[in-house]
Amino acid sequence: MEIITYLLNGFAIAFQWHNILFALIGVIIGTAVGVLPGIGPMSGVALLIPVTATMTSGMPTEAAAASSIILLAGVYYGAMYGGSTTSILINTPGESSSVVTTLDGYQMAKQGRAGAALSIAAIGSFVAGIISLIGLILLAKPLSNIALQFGPAEYFSLMLLGLCAVSGLAGKSMTKALIMTVVGLMLGTIGIDTVSGIARFTYDQPVLYGGLEFLTIAVGLFALGEVFKTILEKSDSTQPIAKIKRILPTKQDLKDSAIPITRGSLMGFFIGVLPGAGASIASFFSYITEKKFSKNPDSFGKGNIAGVAGPESANNAASGGAMIPLLTLGIPGSGTTAILMGAFIMYNVQPGPLLFDDHPDIAWGLIASMFIGNLFLLILNMPLVKVFAKVVQTPPKYLLPIIIAISFFGVYAVQYNTFDLYLLLACGFLGYLFSKHDYPVAPLVLALVLGPMMENNMRRALTISNGDWKIFITQPLSLIFIVIAVAWILVPIILKLIGRKVIVTDEG
Amino acid sequence: MKKKLLMLFTMLILSIGLAACGNNTSSSNSSGTDASSYPERNITIVAPSGAGGGWDLTARSIAKIMSETKLVEKAITVENRAGGGGAVFMAEYATKEATNDYMLMTKSPPILINNLKAEGNSPYGYKDTTPLAQLTKDYGAIVVKSDSSFTSLIELLDAIKADPTSITLAGGSAPGSMDHLVGVLPAYAYGIDPKQVKYVSYDGGGEAIAALLGNNADVIATDASSIGEYVKSGDVKVLAVSSSERLPGVLEVVPTFKELGLDAEFTIWRGLFGPKDMSDEAFNYWSTKLDEMAATEEWQIELERNGWQHEYRNAEDFTVFLQEQEKVIGDLLKALEMHK
Fold first, then answer.
1. Is A38 on the interface with B (CB under 8 A)?
2. What are the UniProt keywords, alphabetically (chain A) (predicted)?
3. Which residues in chain B have Cβ-Cβ distances shorter than 8 Å to A456?
């Protein structure tokens, strides 16, 4: 009951006209930030902090803090909405969390279903936003305690599960998928190892100390790879582009997406709560789960709407989930929430265990405003789908230079150095070769994300246990993940051995 | 309708572009009428990290206050040059930009640490710059969970001495970097071989605190400024701080290393640097302007807004301070066998 009173108070604050305006501005800018590759949610929020500070400078501190945070949070979840757009339309993931969306989203666009893909991404994001908000209100305290129990051993086992599930991203050949996974893991070792502080494969080049930037690799392999393919294989460019048949998803699309959206939202929310796991992992897990549960796993990667609906819901729900450790523990789970936390601190509001007691107006006002913001996003995004869907019909001679420009601009805006531009080019060329020879690039990209996290957590766990490997099976949560991981690999093989007819994507 | 939306969208994209520059172009470009000719052009302060970090915020605060108070008439822009924990830009700054009077840089103890440590070494250190001023300070804190059996740092150090494998120390940065040094510093002063201390590094202070609260670490080393809220909520207790005198506020009851008989202190400072071969004219200009800025009320408000503590050292004092700090950090890295 107490919660309802607080929430109503929150709505009273969120419904003040200026706060509605702030939420609206936030989500509009967020959508733009999400659509533009390169300006990710992180730099978007960081760049707007001084702007909001100026906008709210005349207000009393507490109210100014609430209004600013409402705007900045709007940018954050708004960007998650927008992130799917370029993935679907031009195979260019703007944020790491929308990499998997390219797999089926871009295929859908090629088939003339860009409208359906974009709409379902918006609807999925909306549902996910609302589900994660309800979760945030009801489960914030208990979940933050569970998240704390997630130690290095648990993270390692979760990542191991993720890696076992990479098979879910394989194309025709499992062997090729595994090769790409290992390449990704190897690339992930470049840089200063955070556990021992030792430089690995850096050849004394400071530019390699931080490792290879994930976004550079992803944009290179996906977007530039596609560009090179279109240019080098001229037959493709003269091919007529599929006409957009309709903007809104069909009844069948909605039916096919309902369960992935729900599943993606729940999964994304819970993964989002874990500090460090974040939206990329959430969208990836959602994708492989949908493929695993699908009656028709072969259709994934060829334009299955569940492959867009699930991950897009998951990454949005994850941004809601990530608010939990930020608000209740003062622990930012991702780069963007770390910057949001900086904004809180700027107003002398310390997120953490005391936030809900010391500043209930800010905390509940923010939560209530997120309901309003999500509604704005849906209303804003549905009409935009029509506009964006037209992009696909742009002739390649105009579209390709635009994609190249966006890729270079985007990567430079994140990394600020020319090394990454060369890396981007090299990845683009490799991406072309890979796709020409049917090597799936998604496992490489995901191994690059999972690898370092997995390695670091394994070594942290072993440091804690003084080198005792039993730590991974004596921790109950960790044991559960390992059992699932083993089952994921073994069950299909066993079923096959005993003669059951199952789809095992082992050889093509 | 469609057109309108498209318009709206274009406007937004433009407004983001503006927002991105807004902070940088806030001061007017009117030319100065000073007797000395420096500065003739706009000035750039480089934060050798991405947007939002400590170096970046410090650079932006300096730019903002200098233009707000009209101390510097030329526009000051902030540029982010991330890479290698600051080492990438450092190499460029010490070589290509060594005579560029119009490019300054914000930095903190890693300028010393990166130059001294063996792994991930940056061949350039503070001697390849012209230190201009120290502007803020923070201290390290040794923190345990509130239900921990340790009530004093000495008890904890005794436990580590008895069995180093029994205590896990965590921090938010790699071994050989700041959190690790803060954590092992008291152990080193207590006569414990710092290599024996079991250190687990996390990605940032937030994750380290999570590890402490979730019982995945027994003790953490972190920034004193970021721990206050957890002390107030009763989740953690701070055993000691690395300052030379007691800190104000909630940490008032916490002893310093010195009080506990440990000859150690560590300041997490942030300062502004000029290029190695800065002209005397530019050097004098900035020394004066920074002196003036540090005394303004606007700067004090800005510090408070960011939760930073004021500590100003002018160029001369700052250089002496850096020499001392280099020795402290060097000794510690040697003891850890991480010195280059």
1. no
2. Membrane, Transmembrane, Transmembrane helix
3. 203
How many helices, marked H, and strands, marked E, lie in chain A? 23, 2
B-chain residue closest to A325, CA distance: B210
Say whether A48 and B230 touch across the interface (CB within 8 A): no
A427 part of contact set with chain B, CB < 8 Å: no
> Chain B contact for A474, CB < 8 A?
no
Which pLDDT band, with edges at 50, 70 and 90, does A259 fall under?
Answer: very high
Place of tokens 């937030």: B206
Q: B92-112 burial by CB neighbour count: b if 16+ within 10 A, else e?
A: bbbeebbebbbbbbbbbbbbb
Q: What is the rounded distance in angstroms from the CA atom of residue A279 to the CA atom of residue A94?
A: 13
pLDDT at A357: 82
Q: Is the peptide bond before B164 cis (omega within 30 degrees of 0)?
A: no
Cβ-defined contact of B88 to A195 (cutoff 8 Å):
no
**Least trusted range by pLDDT, from A173-177, B39-43, B183-187:** A173-177
pLDDT in tens, A197-253: 778 898 888 788 888 888 789 889 988 988 898 888 865 544 555 666 677 888 888
pLDDT > 80? residue B254 = yes
- Alpha-carbon span B177 to B174, nearest angstrom: 6
Cα separation of A167 and A506, whole Å? Answer: 8
What domains, with CATH codes, occur in chain B? 40-137+268-335 (3.40.190.150), 139-260 (3.40.190.10)
How many CB pairs below 8 A link A and B?
194
C-alpha A362/C-alpha A503 separation (Å) is 52
Q: Where are the domains of chain A?
A: 2-155+182-190+204-437
CA dist., res. B337 & res. A245, Å (int): 67
A371 touches B331 (CB < 8 A): no
A112 - beta bridge partners?
none
Query: CA nearest B163 in A: which residue?
Result: A466
Test mutation, B200, B225, B227, B340, chain A, max A CBs within 10 A: B200
**Model confidence at B5: pLDDT above 60:** no
Instruction: Establish if A412 touches chain B: CB-CB under 8 angstroms.
Output: no
A296 touches chain B (CB under 8 A): no
Question: What dihedral do alpha carbons A262, A268, A274, A279 form, nearest 10°?
Answer: -170
**Nearest chain B Cα distance for residue A273, angstroms:** 12
Residues from chain B contacting residue A49 (CB–CB below 8 Å) = 52
| CB contact at 8 A, A131 and A137 | no
CB B176 within 8 A of CB A199: no
**Mean pLDDT of all residues belonging to chain B:** 84
* SS3 at position B260: helix
Query: Smallest CA–CA separation between B34 and chain A, in Å?
Result: 30
Span B13-19, average pLDDT = 50
**A-contacting residues of B 10-39, CB under 8 Å?**
12-13, 15-16, 19-20, 22-23
